[in-house]
Amino acid sequence: MDVSFLGGPGPQRGVGVVAPFDFALDRELWRWIPDDVSLHLTRTPYVPVEVSLDLARLVSEHETLGDAVRTLTAVTPEVVAMSRAGAVPSITTSGALLEALVELDVRRVALVTPYTVSVTRALEDYVALAGVTVTGCAFMGLTRHIWKVTYREVVDMARRAAVRGRLGAADALFLSCTNLPTYDVIPQLEAELRIPVISANQVTMWAALRRLGTRAVGPYQALIDASARSGTVLPGQTSGSVLPVPPELPDVPEEKQQEGWT
Length: 262
Prior knowledge:
By secondary structure, the protein is α/β, with parallel strands linked by helices. Helix content is 31%, strand content 15%. Strands 2-1-3-4 form a 4-stranded parallel β-sheet, with helices on both faces. It has a 4-stranded parallel β-sheet with strand order 6-5-7-8. The relative contact order is 0.18.
């Protein structure tokens, strides 16, 4: 059989991803990627530390990330995600979150995290530094195995965080943590809450692909599919594990955008 006409695989563009050593959702990242783009994942070295602010600092150290980026250069990605070092253009999940909030014109956001109170507080402070008001927050207090959280648990937290409180309704809901499964739950929550719902992995892939001049794949997700943008959150009263809201502060300094807590 003559197969010479096939000519080999088509050209692929590359996105390099530097993930924490415990990242378990490779398949979820691929779901946002169009067919003509490949993901090239590498991981930071293992450290015996549970999910915490200390772990975020360890996996975000310049030398650690620099080594990880250098391992990706052999496959020549056009952009590197979840990194702050390297010769190619790079983005962070934290910076991608701010881009997404601007894209959706979000001034008031509800937050969901699987983290402890201290890590969740750091996220609240970071968002407040960008001048975005946190209207509500729900968290789980987990320090390991976050990828095992079910969609039902994510939805329950989202409902608690997004309920209208003393600061009014949120313009959007953010599901934090790159190890938290979110792809299928995003359009369902948007249909129920009537606000855009964004997640750590979603904003990272969206921002990386924007650098390539192409679009992420996410039907019925407001950040990616403009036709899905509408409505406001349903009214109600604040409940669940809710933290006090930090004061609004000036723009986030660039060095703060490099921290890897999301």
